[in-house]
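Table S2 (continued). Query chain:
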Amino acid sequence: MVLTACVLASSMAFIDGTALPVALPILRADFGADLASVQWVLNGYMLALASLTLIGGALADVYGKARMLGLGCVLFGVTSAACALAPSPTWLIAARIAQGAAAAIVTPASLALIGATYPRAERNRAIGLWAAASALTTAGGPVLGGWLTETFGWPSVFWINPPLALAAVGVLLVFAPKDARIQRRFDLIGAAILAAAIGALTWALSQIGSAEALDATSTPAQPVTVLMIVAWLGIVGLAVYAFWERRSEHPMTPPRLLENRAFLGLNVATLMIYAAVSIMFFVLPFDLVDRRALSSTDAGLAFLPFTLGVGLMSNVFGRLADKIGARAMLIAGPAGAALAYVWMALGRAESLMLGVIGPVTLLGLSFAVLVAPLTASVLSSVNQADEGLASGINNAASRIAQLAGVAFAAGVAPFASGYEVGLAVAAATSIAGAFTALMTLAPRAAKAGVALSEPASAAGSGSHGSESRSGDQTRDRAMISAQAEDQ
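Corresponding output:
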């Protein structure tokens, strides 16, 4: 039932992300808005989500995972109603930013709650079910959004969220285990610095990525100088944040996380893997529509094998990861994805079935292999007390990677060989992700999805229902000694 609540909560964000774009043309016509305003209906949500996801994870650790997930669901339902009732584009954009902030609480808290509820030996299977449900709701979003918009109008796309939020909160109130709160203060100053820094980077990347995609009737792209200044401000902000966290008595991201080789390596692998797939998702639609002359609907259907592969097979491979360990799957998954990118690049002149459907199917299977083990390994690489923060960091890494991948793809797409170059870089980046997983995870630690490579990481390997830990290594050693005496 806890897993059901987590799926319901995260499904709101996934459905909203794929159902809304279908409604944008009618929404724009109803408001008489320009394309820049419509673009910010999407970008405002993504900006808030990417900027605040890490903070949402930290809040889940400090104030309780189930408590923050319930609060996030309530906020998401309320802000969705505000979107549906929006009388103007400005109102809608503001409500979407608030909705993105709510989603930044829901996404990491749902995964962290799964990690706190399931023992490590069963996490891959649980997260596989979560990933499968997420993929299927993502796939169904455009169909549901189109039907709702045509039947009831665009506000109905937002009205589907409050009932889901209410159901998730109800299940959490009845079935969620008691939260184990961490006795530490929340780092407000660090949170503000981090949100500003990631927000600046996210905005700069989103503007670079969208600039090439806009048509001639759209507003001009931001000047390159402005984008560079904002990007550098974001980088400087991250440096200031790192300095502050070293000095703070209650750091939001404790330095021990950077010293955790498994955790750091898995997040680097996440950056590479998701940047690679984002490149493909940007360049392929242009090839399908502009060169193969497919309709938008047919181009969307070409991605269906990917979504179905992840949705139908994630649970299967999650169960397999529980048996054989995560390491082999975190190598095989990105390697299979790289093979799919190469196949796609070499098969550009082939038929749609051979040059697109075949490699997209392989890509879906490859991501089904890696999604659950990657997420479970990230959670298993830290103490239970840090699982919310770990989920937030991993989610933020994937969001930034997606924006970086789109920015790169937008830069190479206009060139004659941009399609092949983009996919070649995606393949190389994906292989680098597999190599990072190979070098990060020790074979002995991959069994049952426990992707650890250092004794400091192993300190958090408590069983289901274990007491929350502070993360201090001295205390961890004492607790392990006490557990050994009990055994």
